[in-house]
Amino acid sequence: MAEDFKDPRDVDWHPRRRLRFVGHADAEKRLLLAAQSEKLHHAWLLTGPRGIGKATLAYRFARYLSQPRAERRSASLDVEPESTTARLLAAGAHPNIHVLERKVDTRNKRLKTEIAVDDARLAIEFISRTSATGGWRVIIVDSADDLNTASANALLKVIEEPPDRSIFLLLCHRPGSLMRTIRSRCLRLALDPLDAPSTLRVLQDLPSEAVGADHGALAQATDLARGSPGRALDLIGSKGAAVFADFRSRSKLSPATCVEIAAALGGRASAEDVAIFMELLTGWLAEQARAAGLANRGVALAEAHDDIVYSLRQADALNLERRQTVTDALMRIDEALKAS
Questions:
Q1: Which residues are CB-contacts of 110 (< 8 A; sequence separation ≥ 6)?
Q2: Phi, psi (5° rounding) for residue 148?
Q3: Along the chain (340 residues), what's the average pLDDT of each consecutive run of 10 residues?
Q4: Which pick of 136, 243, 256, 334 has the fewest CB atoms within 10 Å?
């Protein structure tokens, strides 16, 4: 039954409930000026890595547009926390704001892997109705990466011929993979990862239920998250993140340490822990290769990176033993470091 599955997005710190906004001042100013103009473009593509604040900004803008014009502030997208608009949006019940996202697969008790075309059609039906208050109607697509061909084509049709006073806010982590015709209809608003102090400030503003009480773990997650508070939340308390921090702290590798590190991801470590470790490891390796440039070291590390990424795909396809996959990856890095 659907009630047996808790949607992981249904948390008190969901972006629709976040009134405080950190960073991305230029992006916010651009949206503010657009809202204050008489020619607000109807479709915006908010791009950038996952977890950096795109959804929070989209909800913030939707909340601002849904305020009566007389109540809108001139210097920011802030609204009064106790306003009707803020309370309705926090409850997911605002009549003029619709979120197009992956739905719950009630049979398998998980989120669906794609945004279905039927859900896109419901969003189109919503945007085609006249606003009850005469204001803007807003669709937030979270995220456009999850659209399949059918749902993307359905959405494209209404973006090409939008109803009056309708706004589309599409969040996209990998804009290169989005349908070109959709990209061409949108104004692109690119968001960059936050700096470390801003990332930490976002996390410190969240309830302890989200981030825990371990300040050391919070600092470590901030360090590893590369400017993504959302990613930091995934890393807090993660065994994969802790094992990667141990790997990064070592001055050198050896066959014995490779086996030791991999062993830490055996036993009770979950597949998610291993995935987090390998994501952090390949990201670190890519950074090391870029920093070394075209020198022998850079070439060797870049080749090791490509080999490991390929091996990971093979391991996933063949369901290979995860500890051995980690060991092989670390051995390959050790080999590249010695060769350079």
A1: 5, 104
A2: -95, 180
A3: 72 94 97 93 98 98 94 93 96 96 91 96 94 86 98 98 96 97 98 96 91 83 94 92 94 93 85 93 95 90 96 87 91 89
A4: 256
Q: Where are the domains of the chain?
A: 2-190, 238-339
What are the tens digits of pLDDT across the range 268-294?
778 889 999 999 999 999 999 999 998
What pLDDT digit, counting tens, does each position of 103-150 carry? 999 888 889 999 999 999 999 999 999 876 778 999 999 999 999 999
The CATH superfamily assigned to 2-190 is P-loop containing nucleotide triphosphate hydrolases (3.40.50.300)
Rg (CA), the chain: 22
Place of tokens 């490891």: 281
Give the three-class secondary structure for 209: helix
Q: Which amino acid is at 231?
A: R
Alpha-carbon span 52 to 55, nearest angstrom: 8
Dihedral over Cα of 132, 137, 142, 147: its sign: positive
Is residue 137 left, alpha or beta, with left meaning phi > 0 and alpha meaning psi from -120 to 50?
Answer: beta
Task: Name the residue type at position 80.
Answer: E
Nearest to 43 by CA among 178, 192, 183: 183
| Confidence (pTM) | 0.89
DSSP state of 170: E
Question: What single letter denotes the amino acid at residue 12?
Answer: D
Q: Checking DSSP bridges between strand 166-172 and strand 43-47, what pairing results, if any?
A: parallel
Of 326, 322, 331, 235, which is closest to residue 276 (Cα–Cα)? 235
Tokens of 222: 């901030």
Q: What is residue 254's three-state secondary structure? A: coil
Half-sphere exposure of residue 69: CA atoms within 13 angstroms, side-chain side: 8
Q: Which two tokens stand for residue 218?
A: 């919070």
**Neighbouring C-beta atoms of residue 117, cutoff 10 Å:** 17
β-pair type (137-142, 97-100): parallel
What does residue 195 show for φ and ψ, rounded to 5 degrees? -75, 170
